[in-house]
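The protein record passed on below.

***
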Amino acid sequence: MPSKAFYTQGVAILLRQAPTLDEVASRLGDFTIVGRQKESSDWRLSGPSLVIAYKAEVNSYVLVDIVDHRWPDQMGDPNTEPELFGAWHLGQFGPGTWPGSLKRSCEHAWTWPDGRSVPMQHQAFIRIRSSYSFGAESPAIPSINMPENHDAVHELKFVTRIAAALVQLPQAICYFNPNGECLSPASQFLERLSDDHSSTGDMPLQIWSNVRFFTLPNTDPSWSSMDTIGMSQLDAPDHEVFYQSNAYDPGEVDAFLRMVSSYIVTEGPIIKHGDTADGPGNQRWQGFHVNEALAAPARPAIRWFPLDRRKIPAELTKGPAPQLMSWKETALSMLRLRRRPDK
């Protein structure tokens, strides 16, 4: 799926029923609405919408549209559903969004007990999409059109502020980030947005990017995996970890994933293939760049293993993995410990 092309960010509000455009506009008094547009002849491209100024000097606006249909979680067949297939190809459901994102979001809604079922009751949705290409037709082949000083964090914060206003509509069920594959009811979303985010570089990663937990099929059942999804919104890779389940606290692994995610966003792509970092269990963890993460959707990631001398299952060593070090090598590695990822 296009990562960033015509649209650069995209989130949604799932609805019990569609509000009017006036109802939506009434919630956006803190923003500059510069236009209204009628529904496109194809709802997949745009419903009735409002255009909000973001950085007008570089032609950056946010399109807020109401879609009186259920979220199309499948891509559609190019022969029988060419309009839906084409809309997915153009990134109309959010840059970097993959088919099945809503289903996976529900399956991994760990912090919302009703998150597995309630979001699927929606009958409509609002899309909030940012772009630097307004006034241009959606190209047949998506292309990137962003200024050199593009700030993905600031941009996504702006889009999230719009979502915070609209998630309080009486018709709203929840906030949905289709790229980050995460869901939050209004109260949880607003609470997380107002939390202290100092540990994640002043970024509300919990509402931008999910952390998922997996048992690993066809491998040693004592091993588990956790990963992030959605860091491409911030022009950064996702991360995945493999570890022996009874050796590490999943809460510490979650915090580690958030730490390395925010570190790359704030410091740049400085974690190289084979670099190590302090991690859960007071262990050193080693990261490897891979072209495709183990769990869907397909995307680049940094794959982490603890350097704890436990034997890694053969199924997990088919890609890059640590080599078992001698005790002397382990001791020398310990002498190089630092408090943040190193080269």
